[in-house]
């Protein structure tokens, strides 16, 4: 299992091993354990690029995983990679564990012309945990408090949370009520067309989405069956879906945070295949704010609900390539276009919040 995170706005210092190790939970969204993490360096070398995490493989799978992970950096503009192993116990007087796997990774990355600039090990990302280098016995020390890093401060300012495990992060996407999903799936199956007249379909669907934002601001809780079915129907309309994409920009604003909260709520409240729409919107919004781990989970959720979902498939490929979020900003603007009157424009939501 791998997790890809694109280069974003995170102010990580790639030259300070202890700070870099301590920052990993905030870079990938959760505290890695029994993991290999590859951090790409973009030109001139101190700019973060793709961050790729994978589970530590069994001995017989080392070569395959090393080749698969190294190939993910081939298409980007990386000048080198920092390699991190999290897990294992170091025996006194011995090199850090998993040295053979590190060697496989060094060789495979070298095949793509990518030098390993640092090769680091720590048993766990915790305050005071030991860390060491694979290349020098003199290189090592104790990890600082992960919460004290510059990356942690920046993440906290943006409202980002680092979870203790990947499973905790994935649990955010779990259905709230399987029984409610079953009822709503039955109702959606009976719908053969949108539940609004053709002449006013888009306007009425936009009103449904606006009402959902209003309920979220009031803290009204999860939607009723009727509200969930109407929202699922609204998000099937390309005009509405495109306007909802535009809510993700600028990242980190009030409107973008409200939108991400609504899409997350709907992922838990709408059955497949309709769930794919809010899951794709959630993945896009998380991607733009630089949370590649959560974006990847949301996009996987969308593709599980609807394997042929075009937007989710496209975003997953772009995410896996390590494309920086800034590169796909234009997708939101291009999707929305000049469509006044629907009441979904980010500026209108900001005005509503101020009022």
Would you write up a description of this structure?
- By secondary structure, the protein is an alpha+beta fold.
- It has 2 domains: 2-163, no CATH class; 172-354, no CATH class.
- 48% of the residues lie in helices and 12% in strands.
- The chain contains 15 helices and 7 strands.
- The chain has a 7-stranded mixed beta sheet, sandwiched between helices.
- It is elongated, with a radius of gyration of 22 Å.
- It starts with a strand and ends with a helix.
- Mean pLDDT is 85; it is low at 338-342 and 346-355.
Topology of this structure?
Layout: E1 2-5, H1 17-28, E2 35-42, E3 47-55, H2 62-71, E4 78-86, H3 99-111, E5 116-122, E6 130-133, E7 140-142, H4 150-157, H5 166-171, H6 178-190, H7 201-218, H8 225-235, H9 238-246, H10 254-269, H11 276-288, H12 292-305, H13 310-320, H14 329-336, H15 346-354
Parallel strand pairs: 4-5
Antiparallel strand pairs: 1-3, 2-3, 2-4, 5-6, 6-7
Summarize the entry for a quick read.
With about 350 residues, the chain is of the alpha+beta class. It folds into two domains: about 1-165, no CATH class; about 170-355, no CATH class. It is built from 15 helices and seven strands.
Give the overall pLDDT as a whole number: 85
Overall geometry:
elongated
- Strand neighbour order, sheet with most strands: 1-3-2-4-5-6-7
β-strand amount: 5-15%
- N- to C-terminal separation? 46 Å
Structural class: alpha+beta
**Count of alpha and pi helical runs:** 15
Radius of gyration: 22 Å
Tally of extended strands? 7
Q: Indicate how many domains the architecture comprises.
A: 2
SSE succession: EHEEHEHEEEHHHHHHHHHHHH
* Largest β sheet strand count, sense and barrel closure: 7 strands, mixed
Low-confidence stretches: 338-342, 346-355
Helix content: 40-55%
């Amino acid at each position: 299992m791998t997790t890809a995170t694109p280069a974003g706005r995170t102010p990580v210092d790639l030259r300070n091993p202890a700070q870099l190790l301590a920052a990993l939970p905030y870079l990938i969204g959760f505290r890695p354990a029994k993991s290999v993490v590859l951090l790409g360096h973009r030109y001139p070398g101190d700019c973060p690029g793709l961050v790729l995490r994978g589970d530590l493989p069994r001995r017989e799978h080392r070569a395959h995983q090393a080749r698969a992970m190294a190939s993910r950096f081939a298409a980007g503009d990386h000048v080198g990679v920092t390699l991190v192993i999290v897990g294992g116990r170091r025996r006194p007087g011995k090199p850090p564990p998993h040295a053979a796997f590190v060697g496989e990774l060094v060789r495979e990355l070298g095949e793509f012309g990518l030098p390993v600039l640092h090769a680091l090990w720590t048993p766990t990302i915790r305050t005071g945990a030991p860390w060491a280098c694979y290349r020098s016995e003199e290189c090592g020390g104790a990890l600082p408090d992960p919460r004290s890093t510059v990356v942690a401060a920046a993440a906290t300012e943006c409202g980002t949370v680092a979870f203790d495990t990947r499973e905790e992060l994935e649990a955010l996407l779990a259905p709230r009520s399987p029984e409610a999903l079953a009822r709503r799936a039955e109702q959606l199956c009976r719908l053969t067309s949108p539940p609004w007249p053709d002449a006013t379909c888009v306007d009425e669907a936009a009103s449904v989405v606006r009402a959902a934002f209003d309920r979220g601001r009031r803290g009204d809780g999860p939607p009723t069956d009727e509200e969930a079915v109407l929202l699922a129907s609204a998000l099937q309309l390309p005009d509405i879906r495109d306007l909802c994409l535009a809510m993700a920009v600028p990242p980190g604003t009030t409107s973008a945070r409200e939108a991400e909260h609504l899409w997350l709520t709907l992922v838990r409240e709408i059955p497949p295949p309709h769930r794919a729409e809010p899951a794709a919107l959630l993945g896009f919004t998380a991607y733009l704010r630089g949370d590649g781990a959560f974006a990847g989970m949301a996009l996987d959720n969308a593709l599980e609900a609807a394997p042929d979902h075009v937007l989710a498939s496209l975003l997953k490929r772009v995410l896996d390539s390590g494309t920086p979020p800034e590169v796909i900003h234009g997708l939101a603007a291009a999707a929305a276009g000049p469509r006044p009157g629907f009441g979904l424009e980010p500026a209108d939501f900001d005005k509503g919040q101020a009022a």
